[in-house]
Protein backbone atom coordinates (compact mmCIF):
# COMPACT_ATOMS: atom_id res chain seq x y z
CA UNK A 1 0.00 0.00 0.00
CA UNK A 2 1.38 3.39 -1.00
CA UNK A 3 1.76 5.94 1.77
CA UNK A 4 1.15 9.64 1.47
CA UNK A 5 3.96 12.02 2.31
CA UNK A 6 3.17 13.57 5.68
CA UNK A 7 4.68 16.15 8.00
CA UNK A 8 4.00 14.13 11.13
CA UNK A 9 5.76 10.79 11.52
CA UNK A 10 3.14 8.12 10.76
CA UNK A 11 5.59 5.20 10.71
CA UNK A 12 4.35 3.64 13.94
CA UNK A 13 0.74 4.05 12.86
CA UNK A 14 1.31 2.04 9.69
CA UNK A 15 3.26 -0.59 11.64
CA UNK A 16 0.43 -1.04 14.14
CA UNK A 17 -2.11 -1.27 11.35
CA UNK A 18 0.01 -3.92 9.67
CA UNK A 19 0.19 -5.93 12.89
CA UNK A 20 -3.56 -5.70 13.40
CA UNK A 21 -4.21 -6.92 9.85
CA UNK A 22 -1.77 -9.80 10.34
CA UNK A 23 -3.44 -10.98 13.54
CA UNK A 24 -6.94 -10.46 12.16
CA UNK A 25 -6.02 -12.88 9.37
CA UNK A 26 -4.99 -15.44 12.00
CA UNK A 27 -8.30 -15.04 13.84
CA UNK A 28 -10.20 -15.54 10.59
CA UNK A 29 -8.09 -18.61 9.78
CA UNK A 30 -8.84 -20.22 13.13
CA UNK A 31 -12.58 -19.64 12.96
CA UNK A 32 -12.72 -21.07 9.44
CA UNK A 33 -11.30 -24.42 10.55
CA UNK A 34 -13.82 -27.23 10.68
CA UNK A 35 -11.70 -29.82 12.50
CA UNK A 36 -11.40 -27.92 15.77
CA UNK A 37 -13.62 -25.89 18.04
CA UNK A 38 -12.60 -22.26 17.33
CA UNK A 39 -13.91 -21.20 20.74
CA UNK A 40 -11.37 -23.43 22.43
CA UNK A 41 -8.58 -22.35 20.11
CA UNK A 42 -9.25 -18.63 20.64
CA UNK A 43 -9.80 -19.03 24.38
CA UNK A 44 -6.36 -20.57 24.74
CA UNK A 45 -4.60 -18.34 22.21
CA UNK A 46 -2.15 -15.76 23.50
CA UNK A 47 -2.42 -14.24 20.05
CA UNK A 48 -6.07 -13.33 20.58
CA UNK A 49 -5.26 -11.83 23.98
CA UNK A 50 -2.51 -9.62 22.55
CA UNK A 51 -4.52 -8.66 19.47
CA UNK A 52 -7.55 -7.55 21.45
CA UNK A 53 -5.48 -5.82 24.15
CA UNK A 54 -3.28 -3.84 21.75
CA UNK A 55 -6.21 -2.97 19.48
CA UNK A 56 -8.09 -1.59 22.50
CA UNK A 57 -5.04 0.41 23.62
CA UNK A 58 -4.50 1.82 20.14
CA UNK A 59 -8.07 2.97 19.70
CA UNK A 60 -8.37 4.28 23.26
CA UNK A 61 -5.30 6.47 22.78
CA UNK A 62 -6.73 7.81 19.53
CA UNK A 63 -10.07 8.49 21.19
CA UNK A 64 -8.39 10.36 24.04
CA UNK A 65 -5.47 12.13 22.38
CA UNK A 66 -6.14 12.36 18.64
CA UNK A 67 -9.75 12.76 17.55
CA UNK A 68 -10.81 15.35 20.16
CA UNK A 69 -7.82 17.52 19.19
CA UNK A 70 -8.57 17.08 15.49
CA UNK A 71 -12.23 17.91 16.13
CA UNK A 72 -11.26 21.14 17.90
CA UNK A 73 -8.90 22.15 15.10
CA UNK A 74 -11.48 21.35 12.44
CA UNK A 75 -14.40 23.11 14.12
CA UNK A 76 -15.00 25.45 11.18
CA UNK A 77 -14.66 22.76 8.52
CA UNK A 78 -17.74 20.52 8.10
CA UNK A 79 -15.90 18.27 5.65
CA UNK A 80 -13.17 17.60 8.20
CA UNK A 81 -15.64 17.16 11.05
CA UNK A 82 -17.40 14.51 8.98
CA UNK A 83 -14.18 12.50 8.82
CA UNK A 84 -13.69 12.79 12.59
CA UNK A 85 -17.24 11.66 13.22
CA UNK A 86 -16.76 8.70 10.89
CA UNK A 87 -13.56 7.67 12.68
CA UNK A 88 -15.28 7.90 16.08
CA UNK A 89 -18.31 5.96 14.85
CA UNK A 90 -16.11 3.22 13.43
CA UNK A 91 -14.18 2.98 16.70
CA UNK A 92 -17.45 2.71 18.63
CA UNK A 93 -18.27 -0.53 16.80
CA UNK A 94 -15.01 -2.33 17.55
CA UNK A 95 -14.94 -2.76 21.34
CA UNK A 96 -18.50 -4.17 21.49
CA UNK A 97 -17.49 -6.67 18.81
CA UNK A 98 -14.42 -7.73 20.81
CA UNK A 99 -16.63 -8.14 23.88
CA UNK A 100 -19.17 -10.16 21.91
CA UNK A 101 -16.43 -12.46 20.59
CA UNK A 102 -15.17 -13.02 24.13
CA UNK A 103 -18.72 -13.78 25.28
CA UNK A 104 -19.13 -16.31 22.47
CA UNK A 105 -15.80 -17.92 23.33
CA UNK A 106 -16.93 -18.31 26.95
CA UNK A 107 -20.37 -19.66 26.01
CA UNK A 108 -19.92 -23.43 25.95
CA UNK A 109 -23.52 -24.07 24.88
CA UNK A 110 -24.35 -21.62 22.13
CA UNK A 111 -21.16 -19.65 21.45
CA UNK A 112 -20.32 -21.69 18.36
CA UNK A 113 -23.55 -20.47 16.77
CA UNK A 114 -22.42 -16.84 16.96
CA UNK A 115 -18.66 -16.89 16.71
CA UNK A 116 -18.26 -17.25 12.96
CA UNK A 117 -20.56 -14.34 12.14
CA UNK A 118 -19.00 -12.20 14.86
CA UNK A 119 -15.49 -12.75 13.52
CA UNK A 120 -16.66 -12.02 9.97
CA UNK A 121 -18.22 -8.76 11.18
CA UNK A 122 -15.10 -7.84 13.18
CA UNK A 123 -12.88 -8.54 10.16
CA UNK A 124 -15.07 -6.41 7.90
CA UNK A 125 -15.46 -3.51 10.33
CA UNK A 126 -11.82 -3.36 11.39
CA UNK A 127 -10.41 -3.80 7.87
CA UNK A 128 -12.72 -1.09 6.56
CA UNK A 129 -11.78 1.24 9.40
CA UNK A 130 -8.03 0.78 8.96
CA UNK A 131 -8.30 1.46 5.24
CA UNK A 132 -10.52 4.51 5.85
CA UNK A 133 -8.17 5.88 8.47
CA UNK A 134 -5.23 5.51 6.10
CA UNK A 135 -7.04 7.06 3.14
CA UNK A 136 -8.62 10.02 4.97
CA UNK A 137 -7.93 10.01 8.71
CA UNK A 138 -4.14 10.18 8.70
CA UNK A 139 -4.10 13.00 6.17
CA UNK A 140 -6.52 14.95 8.33
CA UNK A 141 -4.41 14.33 11.42
CA UNK A 142 -1.35 15.56 9.55
CA UNK A 143 -3.20 18.66 8.36
CA UNK A 144 -4.54 19.66 11.77
CA UNK A 145 -2.33 18.47 14.62
CA UNK A 146 0.94 20.04 15.71
CA UNK A 147 4.03 17.91 16.41
CA UNK A 148 3.44 18.60 20.10
CA UNK A 149 -0.11 17.25 19.90
CA UNK A 150 1.09 14.21 17.96
CA UNK A 151 3.63 13.58 20.71
CA UNK A 152 0.83 13.69 23.30
CA UNK A 153 -0.77 10.79 21.44
CA UNK A 154 2.51 8.86 21.29
CA UNK A 155 3.13 9.43 25.00
CA UNK A 156 -0.41 8.38 25.92
CA UNK A 157 -0.12 5.24 23.79
CA UNK A 158 3.24 4.38 25.33
CA UNK A 159 1.89 4.83 28.85
CA UNK A 160 -1.07 2.55 28.14
CA UNK A 161 1.24 -0.17 26.81
CA UNK A 162 3.37 0.20 29.94
CA UNK A 163 5.25 -2.92 30.99
CA UNK A 164 3.78 -4.82 28.04
CA UNK A 165 6.33 -3.03 25.85
CA UNK A 166 8.45 -6.19 25.92
CA UNK A 167 5.60 -7.89 24.08
CA UNK A 168 4.23 -4.94 22.15
CA UNK A 169 7.37 -4.01 20.23
CA UNK A 170 8.15 -7.50 18.86
CA UNK A 171 4.43 -8.08 18.26
CA UNK A 172 4.22 -4.90 16.20
CA UNK A 173 7.36 -5.72 14.22
CA UNK A 174 6.57 -9.40 13.68
CA UNK A 175 6.67 -9.90 9.92
CA UNK A 176 7.01 -6.16 9.27
CA UNK A 177 8.85 -4.90 6.22
CA UNK A 178 12.60 -4.83 6.95
CA UNK A 179 12.94 -1.14 6.10
CA UNK A 180 9.92 -0.23 8.21
CA UNK A 181 11.26 -2.15 11.21
CA UNK A 182 14.70 -0.59 10.80
CA UNK A 183 13.19 2.89 10.63
CA UNK A 184 11.18 2.36 13.81
CA UNK A 185 14.12 0.95 15.74
CA UNK A 186 16.42 3.73 14.54
CA UNK A 187 14.22 6.28 16.31
CA UNK A 188 14.18 4.49 19.66
CA UNK A 189 16.61 4.81 22.57
CA UNK A 190 19.68 2.62 22.27
CA UNK A 191 18.89 0.80 25.50
CA UNK A 192 15.41 -0.14 24.29
CA UNK A 193 16.74 -1.35 20.94
CA UNK A 194 19.29 -3.50 22.74
CA UNK A 195 16.55 -4.98 24.92
CA UNK A 196 14.51 -5.74 21.81
CA UNK A 197 17.39 -7.52 20.04
CA UNK A 198 18.85 -9.30 23.06
CA UNK A 199 15.79 -10.21 25.13
CA UNK A 200 12.35 -9.12 23.95
CA UNK A 201 12.58 -10.37 20.35
CA UNK A 202 14.02 -13.81 21.17
CA UNK A 203 11.56 -14.27 24.04
CA UNK A 204 8.62 -13.34 21.81
CA UNK A 205 9.82 -15.71 19.09
CA UNK A 206 9.55 -18.62 21.53
CA UNK A 207 5.91 -17.88 22.34
CA UNK A 208 3.11 -19.94 20.84
CA UNK A 209 0.58 -17.28 19.90
CA UNK A 210 -1.75 -19.32 17.73
CA UNK A 211 -2.39 -22.95 16.89
CA UNK A 212 -0.19 -23.32 13.80
CA UNK A 213 -0.12 -27.11 13.58
CA UNK A 214 -1.43 -26.99 10.01
CA UNK A 215 0.97 -24.26 8.86
CA UNK A 216 4.57 -24.52 7.67
CA UNK A 217 7.22 -23.80 10.27
CA UNK A 218 8.88 -20.39 10.04
CA UNK A 219 12.40 -20.48 8.66
Estimated radius of gyration: 18 Å
Report the average pLDDT across residues.
90
Q: Calculate the terminal CA-CA distance, rounded to whole Å.
A: 25 Å
The number of distinct helices, counting runs of at least 4 residues, comes to 10
Number of strands: 0
Oligomer: single chain
Structural class: mainly alpha
H and E order:
HHHHHHHHHH
Q: What is the helical fraction, as a range of percent? A: over 70%
What count of structural domains? 1
Rough outline = globular
Report strand %: under 5%
Query: How is the biggest beta sheet arranged?
Result: none
Low-confidence stretches: 214-219
What does this structure look like?
- With 219 residues, the protein is mainly α.
- The protein has one domain (11-205).
- It is built from 10 helices and no strands.
- It has helices at 11-31, 38-43, 46-65, 67-73, 78-106, 111-144, 147-161, 165-173, 178-186, 190-205.
- Helix 1 packs antiparallel against helix 3.
Secondary structure blueprint with pairings:
Layout: H1 11-31, H2 38-43, H3 46-65, H4 67-73, H5 78-106, H6 111-144, H7 147-161, H8 165-173, H9 178-186, H10 190-205
Which terms summarize this structure?
76% helix, 10 helices, disordered C terminus, 219 residues, mainly alpha
Brief characterization of the structure:
The chain is mainly α. It has one domain (11-205). The chain has helices at residues 11-31, 38-43, 46-65, 67-73, 78-106, 111-144, 147-161, 165-173, 178-186, 190-205.
Amino acid sequence: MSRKVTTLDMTMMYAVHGALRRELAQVSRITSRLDDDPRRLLHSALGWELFSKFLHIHHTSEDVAVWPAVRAAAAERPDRLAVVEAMEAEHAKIDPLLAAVNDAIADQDYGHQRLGDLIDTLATELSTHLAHEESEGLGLIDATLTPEQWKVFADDHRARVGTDARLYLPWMLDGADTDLAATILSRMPEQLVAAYHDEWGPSYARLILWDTADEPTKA
